[in-house]
Amino acid sequence: MSRLDTHRGRVLLTGGAGYIGSHCCVALMQEGYQPVILDNFANARRDVPDRIALAANGPAPQVIEADIRDRTVMETVLAEGGFDAVMHFAGLKSVAESVAHPERYFDINLGGLTVLVAAMAATDTRRLIFSSSATVYDARATGGAISEDAPLGPASPYGHSKLLAEKVLLAQAEADPSWRVGILRYFNPAGAHGTGHIGEEPADPPDNLMPYIAQVASGRRARLQVFGDDYDTPDGTGVRDYIHVADLARGHVASLAALERDGRGHVVNLGTGRGQSVLEMRAAYARVSGREVSFEIRPRRPGDVAQCYCDATRARAVLGFEARHGIDEMCASSWSWTRRREGLA
Ligand code: NAD
Ligand code: WQD
Asked: How many CB atoms lie within 10 A of CB 32?
């Protein structure tokens, strides 16, 4: 019996100070695990651990400041840490940046993963949960809900870096069956912790829809640009599967439990199984925040597809996971985080 069966284990969270990692850290603490964050703070603020403590109503997690590409450090951390599992969030995530600088994405997302896997192998740490993405699918080749068996075919260097990382992990698990790997393909994470203490630190200007809408609601930006209203969707705007980041965090805890319970790995979509349009998201945010969210219709954004939402059947079957929160809760939590962050609270 592994240590995860007998008591809640120690889990190393690479990139644990980031948006998704910080929410998973809170969820793990609340489930009785001992998360330890390893982050180089390239895209996270230094006060995140203290804010995690506020959100979890517990102690601040231990933090190791390091780069996942440093093999010596990674081996030392894993050799000395006594970790039962690793959750690997660290990486870069901008599709547009990856087109301009693919070398950064292959260096960190693929090279960093390879270093991590080698360090784990050298220290007999064989449980890993990996942040993959719906971007590994060939969304154009898929008509409706995307299942895990849908055709793969990323459209950007970012997507390729994620798909190659998946292949590295699947090869490792095949070569050594004592490895158990959970590959989680996130659809569109949105929202923040219900306490408003942790949330996303978006790029400036934000790449993604929800943080952009939040900044229009707060008055930082004049209006939302809606990229296309002539898609073959109910209102003509793009449809995506937005999943509350707190649900996503529960999905990680469920994945960890399933690795132990089932004795083997899994590849699972994490989404709600439902799609929302850009205009539906805008309207929900305006309603929930009580703020004006002006918008203008702009041309389609290159590379976008009309719709992308998941088939959530396998997540239910394998993880016993189902998203609980809807878009109003995503908007409300994003709004309390945005107000606190921008000093409007
Ligand atoms: P994020 O940028 O908020 O978090 C990533 C964290 O990794 C940051 O804290 C950053 O400082 C850290 N980091 C980056 N490079 C590092 C390095 N070389 N060494 C150590 N730490 C490093 O991003 P996020 O939204 O929390 O995403 C987490 C993971 O989930 C990423 O792998 C991302 O590709 C994946 N993902 C995100 C989304 C999304 O929409 N947010 C969707 C699908 C998949
Ligand atoms: C959502 C919808 C836009 C901004 C990206 C990555 C994907 C994953 C999640 C990491 C689309 C529209 C957006 C705006 C708009 N990340 N939009 N105005 O493109 O589905 O996915 O983030 O793995 O890999 O590609 O998310 O939030 O950028 O866009 O109209 O200012 O909102 O056209 O229909 P996307 P998004």
From this structure: 9
Point out the ligand 1 atom lying closest to the alpha carbon of residue 132. Answer: 44
Q: Read off the pLDDT of residues 248-263 as tens digits, 9 standing for 90 and up.
A: 999 999 999 999 999 9
Using CA positions, which residue lies closest to atom 34 of ligand 2?
A: 238
Catalytically active residues are 158
Q: Which of 240, 243, 330 to mutate to test the pocket of ligand 2 (most atoms within 8 A of CB)?
A: 240
Give the rounded distance of the alpha carbon of 164 from its chain centre: 17
Q: Does domain 10-192+243-271 have CATH number 3.40.50.720?
A: yes
Block residue for tokens 């995530």:
93
The answer to whether the CB of 182 is under 6 A from ligand 1 is no
The confidence score (pLDDT) of residue 140 equals 84
Cα angle value 330/200/31 (rounded, 5°): 75
Give the distance (Å) from ligand 2 centre to CA of residue 208: 5
Secondary structure (3-state) at 55:
helix
> Which residues are CB-contacts of 114 (< 8 A; sequence separation ≥ 6)?
168
